[in-house]
Specification:
This protein is of the alpha+beta class. Helix 1 crosses helix 2, helix 5 (88-100) runs antiparallel to helix 6 (121-132) and helix 8 crosses helix 9 (235-250). The termini are far apart. The chain has helices spanning 5-15, 19-28, 33-51, 82-85, 88-100, 121-132, 183-200, 212-228, 235-250, 265-276, and strands spanning 58-65, 71-79, 137-145, 149-156, 165-166, 168-175, 281-289. 45% of the residues lie in helices and 18% in strands. The chain has 10 helices and 7 strands.
Length: 293
């Protein structure tokens, strides 16, 4: 049957697929719009399989925060090129998936319904691959929550000014012992802490989080280096010094705060609490950098 331009236009508006792909789908389904949508999605799945071996090392890290600032999620979705990361369809998909991740664990996301579409996140991703023409991969996600407090967020190199999508994303949980605090003040402080995490890339929150095997590895390296330069008699002392420096470099609360490079994060937190008559504690943080593990 002849496929009218109006019918092709309708399918394009519903699916965002290209003119040629929509015409092909309508020809194959005798002009049935719903069947043509299904055809395009099945074709997208096949395209996704074909493209899955291609490296997807670019993309976006995205953060999403609930209106009350007590729940947040962070997601990384990869593309092959930075050009696609600037694509509005890709950005919209990443934003929607980050909202889904607010209530869904990482290993369940791909099988979760995508909004009210009647298909899954995995189906939508496969379809988007056919529309955009690149390999796209959902890489990882995490969600955090607080009872009393806020979750501070920061996105570095935001793809759009003011958006929560970029190359580095951070969430920081600030818990207070009561609900009596200035929300806006806490939100801004949380953002500052998230900016610190983005800049300083801590591996641990507190010293107690550093495992014994990590500490022993640092000591062992320091001892071997001391022995190699003829300082075996003070090797243990040098090893302890290395551990102290390791804490200062990798433990968030022990790091020098990024804004003044003089006070530690724990000192900055204590001063904030003293100045504002609060009792906030940093209970967790997540930092995603695009392409990192």
């Amino acid at each position: 049957m002849a496929i009218s331009s109006d019918l092709i236009k309708q399918l394009r508006q519903k699916t965002s697929a290209g003119f040629t792909a929509c015409k092909e789908a309508l020809v194959e389904t005798n002009g049935d719009i719903k069947a043509a949508e299904d055809y395009l999605r099945k074709k997208g799945l096949m395209d996704a399989v074909k493209k899955s071996s291609r490296t997807a090392a670019d993309g976006l890290v995205s953060c999403y925060v609930s209106d009350d600032l007590k729940r947040a999620s962070i997601v990384e979705v990869n593309s092959e090129t930075d050009f696609v990361a600037k694509n509005e369809k890709f950005q919209s998909f990443v934003n929607d998936v980050t909202a889904i991740a607010l209530n869904v664990d990482q290993d369940e996301i791909l099988d979760t319904p995508f909004k009210d579409s009647g298909h899954t996140v995995k189906d939508e991703l496969s379809f988007l691959i056919s529309v955009i023409g690149e390999n796209l991969q959902f890489k990882r996600s995490q969600h955090l929550s607080v009872k009393n407090g806020v979750i501070g967020t920061y996105t570095h190199n935001a793809v759009v000014p003011g958006s929560r999508m970029g190359k580095i994303g951070v969430l920081v949980c600030l818990e207070n012992d009561s609900s009596n605090y200035d929300v806006e003040l806490a939100k801004n402080f949380g953002k500052k802490l998230a900016m610190h995490v983005a800049a300083s890339s801590p591996r641990f929150l507190r010293i107690d989080d550093v495992t014994a095997d990590v500490i022993e590895t640092e000591k062992s390296i320091a001892r071997e280096q001391a022995i190699a330069v003829g300082k075996a008699d003070v090797a243990d002392k040098i090893a302890m010094g290395r551990v102290k420096r390791f804490y200062e470099e990798t433990v968030m609360l022990e790091q020098l705060y990024f804004e003044d490079n003089k006070s530690t994060v724990s000192q900055v937190l204590a001063k904030f609490n003293q100045d504002n008559n609060t009792n906030f504690k940093i209970t967790a943080f997540v930092r995603y950098m695009l392409g990192a593990e």
